[in-house]
Automatic annotation (TrEMBL):
<feature type="compositionally biased region" description="Basic and acidic residues">
    <location>
        <begin position="54"/>
        <end position="64"/>
    </location>
</feature>
<dbReference type="Pfam" id="PF09954">
    <property type="entry name" value="DUF2188"/>
</dbReference>
<dbReference type="InterPro" id="IPR018691">
    <property type="entry name" value="DUF2188"/>
</dbReference>
<feature type="compositionally biased region" description="Polar residues">
    <location>
        <begin position="1"/>
        <end position="11"/>
    </location>
</feature>
<feature type="region of interest" description="Disordered">
    <location>
        <begin position="54"/>
        <end position="73"/>
    </location>
</feature>
<protein>
    <submittedName>
        <fullName>DUF2188 domain-containing protein</fullName>
    </submittedName>
</protein>
<feature type="region of interest" description="Disordered">
    <location>
        <begin position="1"/>
        <end position="26"/>
    </location>
</feature>
Length: 73
């Protein structure tokens, strides 16, 4: 089962953490670096990427899972 990947602020840095995990997968100096790392994991696991702002609220999300409604044609 794939886990959604969250990019969250952590003590002046940015963490990548799988949903339900108690520990971060990786810590990065910039949000952009964390997003790149989390995007790669989400693609490999066909899961969602949820990007949190400095306030901790979700500000963006991308889905890399299988599309239940693929385009026809």
């Amino acid at each position: 089962m794939s886990k959604n990947q969250h990019v969250t602020p952590r003590q002046g840095q940015w963490a990548v953490q799988g949903e339900g995990n108690s520990r971060a997968t990786s810590i990065h100096d910039t949000q952009a670096e964390a997003i790149d790392a989390a995007r790669e994991i989400a693609r490999n696991q066909q899961s969602e990427l949820l990007i949190h702002g400095r306030d901790g609220r979700i500000r963006a999300r991308d889905s890399y899972g299988n599309d239940p409604f693929p385009p026809k044609g």
